[in-house]
Amino acid sequence: MRGNVLSFNLGGMGCSAGIIAVDLARDMLQANPNNVAVVVSTEMVGYNWYPGRDRSMLIPNCFFRMGCSALLMSNRRGDYRRAKYTLEHIVRTHKGGDDSSFRSVYQEEDLEKLRGLKISKDIMEIGGEAIKTNVTTLSPLVLPFSEQMFFFSNLIKRYFSGTAKSKGGGAMSGESSHRLPPVLQEMSQL
After folding, report:
1. Dihedral of alpha carbons 96, 101, 106, 110, sign
2. Structural domain range at position 77
């Protein structure tokens, strides 16, 4: 490679490395005007493939497969009209500090000494909390001011009325289990 090419390897982080790489590329482009960045993200399951019989360790064989994506990012003025998308916001939340979240998907050996990923029965609750945190973080960045005021007024009403939880309404309310893939529904019943 040429001397002016920077290369970063973010291996060992699974699919989360993709968003970290986009964030890194954005930061590099902000620091270096009139440049391009290429982000290549791959996922390979060969290392964690589980050949055993433990049901909670077989499910990740269905979730995690092999795949790849590539993204060309540019901060050149001439590329603005040709660009299909514009990067507005990147939101990352980290739940690994919570012990139950950390142990929700974990690599270990079964009784036959076969290594694989084990999925906790609490994965649905933990995933819901992660989505809630992401939506809470992202909403002020993307929602129009009128929707933010509607949310804030409902929050104040609930506070003064003593209602702990929302009774519904809005685009994000309601039970979402009917939209989950069958594998996730099965996992919640293990």
Report:
1. positive
2. 16-163+179-189
